[in-house]
Write a structure and sequence with these properties.
The protein has a two-stranded antiparallel ribbon. Strands 3-4 form a two-stranded antiparallel sheet. The protein is globular and about 60 Å long. A hairpin with a 2-residue loop joins strand 3 and strand 4. It has 459 residues and is mostly helical. The longest helix is centred in the N-terminal third of the chain and has 29 residues. Helix 4 runs antiparallel to helix 13. It contains 20 helices and 4 strands.
């Protein structure tokens, strides 16, 4: 890999193996708080989550020619899909674990969408492809995801409001007033702080952790997507696929924004080399593999981009060390049980913040891209997405078309994409300047003079 010579950017190999290992642990802990929270909320395996976060990251690095220093962890965007499929399954008489195997099939199919978008980017370019997924569609979808999940967060908080409020307070204080690493890992600190205090007051039962083995396999075949095909309910399976696949439109936009942010942080044009088509393939493969073996969908992690910006060590080797560490920890059931013993109220308090942040990201997506809501067609598209997603979720729960059930989020996503495509008066165009934020409109055509100069130096 060609090394960057820009001032303030360091090659980790010059730091020595000991410091590289410490940096790897830092990356692992940066992603840890959010990554393990997803299986706790959904009911998936913590061990499998860590295993396939590590494996998925290594696959991503292989697909991107080992150039992009990104870590792939659990995606929160699919939480609404998991919840919708669980509700469908329970209504049909299936247990939650069985319902989750069908949800995993849906997520695996969502991973296939990354390959389709990758091919479109490769053959048609960013500008022509992104016009079908403008912020007026993706923004309200992301807002809806957070709002749909908010009820479960409140229910978990009700287990013990004082513990939940403590977790929220720690997160807010660390994020607003913290410095350095404290500001980067507020979620992890919120989890640890409320967990420890709850344990001190006798609110945690550590018996399962004491009884768990030190070493064991991270997943069981009966909890994987393959189990859904042993005696499949095809109508339920199609319902799960249709409910979850549209969410991938939002996560793929998020992926593009993450790669733009990493590009800006590292001052290397990853959008062109290795290219968005390669990063999308890597993310899609990681998501598919994780889902097939009962782990949550993967996504590039902004937390680790923050670590890159803090340390100025952009060598992808450090991120690969973090991936290997995650794989090692995944083989310890005792470690997994320590996570499962976490108080329900802690999960509630942390998820209350995270779900609100998901919706806030959707709002930011609209603001940063300056979506014009004086344009009536934009108002109609956004309004219908929000009303359909929320109304169906808290009304009938789903819409039945024959034997297939569509979640509110699926109906909203499909309606928004179709309406935006057919209604006249589109006013969204891709940004012509390179931006450092997580903006859906970012592209590779309008680099600033600084980036152009840097690219010429690299060439």
């Amino acid at each position: 890999m060609e090394e960057v010579k820009t001032e303030g950017i360091y090659d980790a190999s010059t730091l020595g193996k000991g410091k590289m290992l410490v940096l790897g642990f830092q990356h692992m802990f940066a992603m840890f708080g959010a990554t393990v929270l997803v299986p706790l909320i959904t009911g998936l395996s913590v061990s499998a989550t860590l295993l396939f976060a590590g494996i998925g990251t290594l696959i991503f690095h292989l697909c991107t020619k080992r150039l992009v220093p990104a870590f792939l962890g659990s995606s929160f965007a699919f939480l609404g899909g998991y919840a919708a499929v669980k509700e469908m399954g329970v209504a049909l008489g299936y247990s939650v674990p069985v319902s989750l195997t069908y949800a995993c099939v849906g997520v695996a199919c969502a991973g296939l969408m990354y390959f389709i978008l990758s091919a479109l980017f490769y053959f048609y370019g960013v500008r022509k492809t992104m016009r079908f997924f403008p912020p007026v569609v993706t923004g309200p979808i992301i807002i809806s995801i957070g709002l749909i999940l908010s009820a479960s967060a409140i229910n978990n908080c009700q287990a013990n409001w004082w513990i939940a409020i403590l977790a929220i307070a720690i997160i807010v204080v660390c994020n607003v007033f913290g410095k350095g690493m404290i500001k980067i890992i507020p979620i992890l600190l919120g989890v640890l702080g409320s967990y420890i205090i709850a344990a001190c007051f006798g609110q945690v039962d550590f018996t399962p952790m004491k009884e768990a083995a030190w070493f064991g396999l991270p997943f069981k075949m009966e909890n994987t997507a393959f189990a859904a095909f042993s005696n499949p309910d095809w109508s339920f399976m199609w319902s799960a696929i249709i409910a979850i696949v549209p969410i991938s439109f939002a996560t793929m936009i998020e992926h593009i924004g993450d790669i733009c942010a990493i590009t800006s942080t590292c001052q290397r044009n990853f959008l062109e080399n290795p290219g968005l088509h390669r990063t999308l393939v890597g993310d899609g493969l990681a998501t598919m593999l994780a889902a097939l073996f009962g782990a949550p969908a993967n996504t590039t992690y902004g937390e680790n981009t923050g670590v890159l910006n803090l340390t100025k060590v952009f060598d992808p080797k450090v991120v690969r060390i973090a991936a290997v560490l995650a794989i090692i920890f995944s083989f310890s059931p005792k470690f997994a049980q320590l996570i499962y013993c976490m108080p329900t109220a802690t999960v509630g308090g942390v998820s209350l913040v995270l779900y609100g942040m998901i919706s806030a990201v959707g709002v930011r997506n609209l603001v940063e891209n300056k979506v014009n809501f004086q344009n009536n067609r934009n108002v109609l598209v956004a309004a219908l997405i929000l009303v359909l997603a929320i109304g169906i979720q808290y009304g009938p729960g789903s819409v039945n078309i024959g034997k297939v059930s569509l979640s509110g989020l699926a109906v909203a996503a499909i309606a928004g994409i179709v309406l935006n495509a057919i209604l006249p008066g589109k006013d969204f165009t891709l940004n012509t300047e390179y931006t450092s934020g997580k903006t859906a409109g970012s592209n590779t055509e309008g680099f600033t003079e600084e980036m152009k100069s840097y690219k010429r130096h690299q060439d």
